Amino acid sequence: MLQLRPNCECCDIDLPPQSADARICSFECTFCVSCAEVKLAGACPNCGGELVVRPRRPAEKLAGNPASTQRVLKPQACVARP
Question: Is the residue at 28 inside a domain?
């Protein structure tokens, strides 16, 4: 099950579970749409994988399967890979 991390790893903006602005790679590294498209050119700075729209969990499922509250912040890594 996806963790639905609560923030962008680059800029630390909040990304609630229902946000359409969250982007993730296959390892669930999480970024806002602005950082993903502008700073990172659609590629994860951690693994080089593609950043895609994070699926949204239906609100009624969040009660039994809540989003993660653990924030991950790695601004030093937020540069596009060559």
Answer: yes
Q: Report phi then psi at 14, rounded to 5.
A: -65, 140
pLDDT tens digits for range 41-61: 999 999 999 999 999 999 999
Decide: helix, strand or coil at residue 47.
Answer: coil
Distance CA 49, CA 60 (A): 31
Range of the domain at 30: 22-77
Q: Is the dihedral angle over the CA atoms 34, 24, 70, 65 positive or is it negative?
A: positive
pLDDT of residue 80: 64
Sign of the C-alpha dihedral computed for residues 36, 40, 43 and 46 taken in this order: negative
